[in-house]
Amino acid sequence: MKIVRPAKAGTMESNDIYIMVYPNENGNEIQLDSIVLKQFGNQIKKVIMDTLNELEVENALVVAKDRGALDYTIKARVETAIKRACE
Amino acid sequence: MINAVKREIPEFIEGYGKVKPFMGAYANIGDVVKTSVKIKSVKPNDKKVLPSIKDALLKCGIKDGMTISFHHHLRNGDYVLNMVLDEIAKLGIKNLTVAASSIFPCHAPLVEHIKNGVVTKIYANYMSGPVAEAVSKGLLKYPAIMHTHGGRARAIESGDLHIDIAFIAAPTCDTYGNINGVEGKSACGSLGYAIPDAMYAEKVVAITDNLVDYPACPIEISQEYVDYVVVVDEIGDPKGIVSGTTRITRDPIGLRIAKLAAQLIDEVGLLKDGFSFQTGAGGTSLAVAAFVKDIMKKKNIKGSFAAGGITGYIVDMFEEGLFKALFDVQCFDLKAVESYKNNKAHQGMSASMYGNPHNKGAVVNNLDVMILGATEVDIDFNVNVTTGSNGIIIGGSGGHSDTAAGAKLAIVVTQLTKARLPIIVDRVTTVTTPGETIDAVVTERGIAINPRRQDLLEKLKDSNLPIFTIEELKNMAEKLTGVPEKIEFEDRIVAVVEYRDGTVIDVVRQVR
């Protein structure tokens, strides 16, 4: 899928994640801020990256503000944001 | 060396001294000696009221390396600690030890005094906010020493913690040093934590914003202990001292946990006439009180006492006749202050009477049920309330370890996961309270009973309550959240966690 416009999904509530997606020049890039960065930062990035790959997204900048979301929440929010950012 | 909760502790800690390892919750109770106090007695015509804090400091002979103490009844509205330290810093004094029963975000200016070497050592039973972060990051020269509320009283009475000057924030004080907490614009109720300080410090200075004619009655801290009295405009911000009301949680998860905890108390047969109870002021803990209240009313049970930091909710239960008396070391809200002032059976208690393991019997020993919180619980039932799972100090025992050790049934109430973090883990970041004193953990998805309590498991064998092993609860949590990556620490010790008997139960290392 091709990102054509910025889009967002999610909230800043506890246990949710706020995802913003922008078109990017060179591949996929993630900027993550999380209240559990030390404990789960790598796992959250992996879930975001896996979701991008599943949706065949190639050039996206994902800005994520995590408030302790579980994996399925992260996946759902990323997917929704991507779909909003595409045609 | 390895202590009784399997923690690797050095035999000697720089800035702390030789370590006595934790040997078990009841291993170190028996013959003890209380220390003597050097004081300066007064002549009939001596006056105690001085014009300023600076005058009091000079009269007390403030000098480098002294230990000064504070109590925390003004909580996050306290002005006294900051006022005194600012004056001391202006005098150019260095290397002080601050023994504060608790440190809150309002004490942020202390961080500057730490950086400048005015303060190089801290004792506290609880610390949160900028000072706790500064300690966690290693800014303090020597390790902070974390006590329990009862353990601090023990340390003072035994002489382990020698106080040169105690500063008492006094909502009301007379010209000869009699103090109470129930009158005045900064009224905070019971002054229980300040009592050991007043009795065992060499010098005692009352700082008040309500100086009254002699005598100020009722007397909570008496003239026989107080050297000087200083009047200031305000000792604290009333908004931070007591909250207007303490509320029961409306969160359905918190309510579910509370309901399960109340059912557990009932099913193990503790809810009967003469019942005694303590709970914290947190929303879920208070909700347990609400469910317990329902059962008590339904079954027409007359309890004996409720204890602790007292909230309006507990006062309501007392005024409805559900408890004969309240034991109060600290009032949490205005309703508690009002009741403490007016009800004869709303009894004040000192920190020592509350939880000191080395006296002739603390109130915690008479508790049937204690409701506790946790940031982490491990599969040995050890509880952490000292550090967050990122390793930063966010609290401390307070009365946690004291009440857990004393109560017949110590129940930890907690969500199974909080913001993706599993609360039940293999090994807590810091041991605050040893697992041998925790009897049950209640979460929204199930209850774990400590296998040491076969008697409880026997009573619950036909119960409909969702009872699991602690490992099963841990697995449930990890299935939801995943396994967190380990936090890394530096080698340097930034805080020593003392159990209530003065042995070292754990250390906190600097966060990376």
Automatic annotation (TrEMBL), chain A:
GO molecular function, one term: lyase activity
Record PTM O-(phosphoribosyl dephospho-coenzyme A)serine, positions in chain: S14
Tree of life domain: Bacteria
Keywords linked to the UniProt accession: Cytoplasm, Lyase, Phosphoprotein
Major localisation: cytoplasm
Taxonomic source organism: Caloramator fervidus
Localization terms from the record: Cytoplasm
Keyword Lyase: yes
Protein name, UniProt field: Citrate lyase subunit gamma (Acyl carrier protein)
GO cellular component: cytoplasm
Automatic annotation (TrEMBL), chain B:
Organism: Caloramator fervidus
Keyword Mitochondrion: no
UniProt GO cellular component terms: ATP-independent citrate lyase complex; cytoplasm
Gene Ontology MF terms: citrate (pro-3S)-lyase activity; citrate CoA-transferase activity
Reactions performed catalytically: citrate = oxaloacetate + acetate; citrate + acetyl-CoA = (3S)-citryl-CoA + acetate
Any one biological process term the GO annotation gives: acetyl-CoA metabolic process
Coiled coil residues, start to end: none
SUPFAM superfamilies, A to Z: NagB/RpiA/CoA transferase-like
Tagged with keyword Flavoprotein: no
Entry EC number(s): 2.8.3.10, 4.1.3.6
Chief site of localization: cytoplasm
A Pfam family matched in the record: CitF
Protein name: Citrate lyase alpha chain
Entry keywords, A to Z: Cytoplasm, Lyase, Transferase
Localization per Swiss-Prot or TrEMBL: Cytoplasm
